[in-house]
Amino acid sequence: MRITLLGKNVRNVQFSTIASLHGINMFTKCHNLTMLNTLVDNGKILWKEYCKSVTLIGIATGGLECDLELLLASIHDVMIFCIGKKELETLKNVDQTKRDLRQCYPLIDYLLESLDPNAISSPLPTLVLDLVQSFLCPQAQQLQQALDNYAESVTGRWACLSIHGHLVATSSDFDELNPREARLMLLLAASQDGAPLRETPVYLPHMSPNVAFRAVTCKLLSDVYILVVCGATPPLSQIDEIVLLCWEGYAQVIKEAKLIHPRNFPMSITFEPCVLAILVINIPKRRCVFSRHLHPTQKGRGMSGSHRLDILRTFYITTARDLAPELRIDDQERDYLAGLTETYWCSEYHKCHAQRMRNLLCCVLYTSTVHNHTMRSITNQILQDLSSNKEIYW
Description:
34% of the residues lie in helices and 26% in strands.
């Protein structure tokens, strides 16, 4: 079975082109060869086979091509998440499997749209595929206590609360999940069609790829969802009552947390006017916070929000990620980078600077007029503020 993914800026690929891509893969397999990838104008085509039964073909241009293999792995995770690994491996009935996979299309569409900063319908711009996108708010600890209480009440585990598709708070045991599994949970919540309460059987690609769990998603307010993984009981009707009991007193707390978006940082964290966008990563937790709306009173600033996202994504994927070997997704040895804590880019139109301080990695997009030594000073101060601010709770 083969699936072709049309990546960023790829529109209306002709059937003959798709057939040719499949043909190239079949030809190389017949000759005991493996077609890994090929380069096209400002882009890349990648073939990837999983479980000896599914071949994904991805096409991407721009900064996303650097992480195209990770994108295909994420798509494969979505497929397992929806129907299970055993079903994908055995393919006893290909037509039935194709029909079963239709349930994962909304998740895949959501993921692809979120990777395109120019998509008008994009619900959430996504910077990094292997990290969980979050935002930081002073209410996170209160919400964690509420989640723990809610999960216990429904005899569940691994509960989370999302606002505008960002992870805001989690239950105490949520970190047991692989970061990509946690991201799938967020995708499931964010891609709901507005139903107030829904249950979905899900397979966790790393923890339980063949045995399904029951994921219950509940809409608390507009763009606010809670998700909990629990057993077959209690029934949805009872969970509906439990939700009311557990969350009725937290409406104001959640409304205050919503005000953090789209800045995604508490107002107690201030940024210099020369800072255009920022990406902060908590390395052990594999969570990231991104903002391109740091200065609400200053509009325009000569660079579109989508352009800022693209620049910062490319800078992180191609350069800044090397500052955190724990986040490396390949097996390449880069001993010459050991101990590196800073890196930067300079161009005619902008500058980028990244610095690591213990468990935090900070990538900042600056105006082109800022001096290099000033960049270092500002980034360092941001990291110190994030490390010492008592309103920051990951």
